[in-house]
Amino acid sequence: MYDVFAIDQDVKRRASISYFLNGHGIHTEPFEMIEEFVRRWPTAGVFLLYDEGSAVSSLLQEIYSRHTWLPVVAYSENPDPARIVAAVLAGAVGYTAWPGSGDALIRAVHKAGASSAATVAAGSRQGIALSRIKNLSKREREILAGMVEGLSNRLIGENLAISPRTVELHRANLLFKIGAKHSAEAIRVAIEASLPPFGTDDRDTG
Fold it and tell me: CB-based burial of residue 86 (10 Å sphere; 0-12 exposed, 13-18 middle, 19+ buried)?
């Protein structure tokens, strides 16, 4: 289950939305300002933010600056179409009214929560994949990147100025190092780890 972090400078509105969601089984913590998260930035969950001024863009900039992603649902008492559009264009995944329809609020939060869970799962897969390739040499990483692009040993060798036989030996070594049973598994690991494309790294001799 995910947590919801409700950010609203109005204490009554903040309390009412938190009370409502907690009463419906959605664990919600109220906060007055974005700055309160600096010391305890969450790794998962949903931001529920009252839309006023530049609050939405400020929160999203803070999220992006941390090289992470957490879904933001914006809300206001009387949503204006122009503000809804602006919030969505800034990166909010949803917009709702509060006080307003409790069902609409819950739907927006659940939808954002599903996005958060999917992101956490993807992040976990990436972390596992990164741990599997971290011991590869620079040359082995280059060859793995070539495998991702479907290049043959000959073409990889031509690009790296090494023989196809040397490429074959490196392939065998990298498969062993990452515990892959075959090339298809190694390619999947490389994709999940977001390995840089073939030819983007500085090359060494090997």
Answer: middle
Question: Does residue 204 sit within a domain?
Answer: no
More confident residue, 147 or 68: 147
Q: What angle do CA 51, 64, 114 make, to 5 degrees?
A: 70
How far is residue 80 from each of residues 34, 84, 93, 106, measured CA to CA in Å? Answer: 23, 6, 16, 20
Amino acid found at 174: L
Candidates 109, 41, 36, 37; CA nearest to 75 is 109
Q: What angle do CA 127, 146, 148 make, to 5 degrees?
A: 50
- φ, ψ (nearest 5 deg) of residue 96: -145, 175
User: Domain range for residue 81?
Assistant: 4-130
In a domain, 105, yes or no: yes
Q: What is the per-residue pLDDT across 8-34, written as a single tens digit (0 to 9) for each? A: 999 999 999 999 999 999 999 999 998
| Whole-number pLDDT of residue 204 | 42
Query: Tokens representing 48?
Result: 């529920």
> Rounded CA gap, 39 and 102, in Å?
31
pTM value?
A: 0.58
- 111 in a domain, yes or no? yes
